[in-house]
Amino acid sequence: MIDELIDLPASSVEEFDRKGHTCIRGLATPEELSFFRPEIEKTAHGGRYDHRPIEDRDTYGKAFLQVHNLWQRNSTCKSFVFSKRFAHVAATLLGVESVRLYHDQSLLKEPNGGYTPWHQDQTYWPLESGKTVTMWMPLTEISAEVGSMYFVTGSHKMGNIDAGVISDESHQKISQWIEKNSLPEETYGPMQPGDATFHAGWTLHRAGANLTSEARPVMTVIFVADGTRILEPTPLQDFDLKVWLGGQLPGEMVDSPMNPLLYP
Ligand SMILES: O=C(O)CCC(=O)C(=O)O
After folding, report:
1. Which of 139, 205, 210, 216 best tests ligand 1's pocket when mutated (most atoms within 8 Å of CB)?
2. How buried is 88 (Cβ within 10 angstroms: 0-12 exposed, 13-18 middle, 19+ buried)?
3. What is the pLDDT of residues 178-221, one digit of tens each?
């Protein structure tokens, strides 16, 4: 279990609030990662559902192989996702007492995997704004050549900019939006296993292609503040309403058994 808490510096909270993203180095130790990595990778491999060769996939499909809710598939993955340390960081960044799980996902950018287009996660989530944060943690070293994610600083306060689903079109629309609004783009560059970035639901983000011969395994956990209300879904949010909220309905609070309390 990764349950001992860390003292999160006030500067991280201030940065997350102001920029909509932050990076916490060494959130998990190399030893912890070498314990969890094999089970996460095995479980993600077993849960792979897209078996098309990379050249037959669209831009979204080329960006990464995605497997959700590893916590329901494997007890070791469950203790990683349910880490009180991670959930405490999420609650502190959001400035709330308690957080729940929205869902987790493994994101494997394959060797020669494509770029991750600019997008906003909350396009897919029928949840109140300002109540979610994603932890993105590499399981191996991310070299400068592969790189970590890029974020548009301050974009979390702009709400939905209607760029649509993650695609070449969202990338183009958001690139134009960035140019027009002249907001800065930032990245945290190379990362060690156990470092993690955190970004808010509306923060604009993207990642580069993987032009190396090594895969880039990443585990993400999406946290939602306890007491968050489910919104009437847009057509792009119907899927998430049905799949990730345990059958709950708009107007209700997120609190189904699919969304367990992770902290405290
Ligand atoms: O790992 C990537 O390339 C993108 C991940 C992402 O968009 C996210 O975690 O919200």
Report:
1. 205
2. buried
3. 999 999 999 999 999 999 999 999 999 999 999 999 999 999 99
**Which ligand 1 atom minimizes the distance to the CA of 218?**
1
Distance CA 91, CA 201 (A): 14
Does ligand 1 lie within 6 Å of residue 118's CB atom? no
Ligand 1 near 133 CB (within 6 A) = no
Residue 220 Cβ inside 6 Å of ligand 1? The answer reads yes
* The amino acid at 192: Q
Query: What is the pTM for the complete model shown?
Result: 0.97
Q: What is the mean pLDDT of residues 81-108?
A: 98
Count the Cβ atoms, other than its own, within 10 Å of residue 130. 18
Q: CB neighbours (10 Å) of residue 224? A: 28
119 CA → ligand 1 middle, Å: 9
Q: Is the CB of 121 under 6 A from ligand 1?
A: yes
**Which residues make Cβ contacts (< 8 Å) with residue 168, sequence separation at least 6?**
59, 117
Q: Give me the CATH topology for the region 10-248.
A: Jelly Rolls (2.60.120)
Question: If you take atom 1 of ligand 1, which residue's CA is the nearest one?
Answer: 107
Q: What are the sequence ranges of the domains in the chain? A: 10-248
Nearest-angstrom CA–CA distance, 141 and 139: 7
What distance in Å separates the CA atoms of residue 150 and residue 146, rounded to the nearest whole number? 12
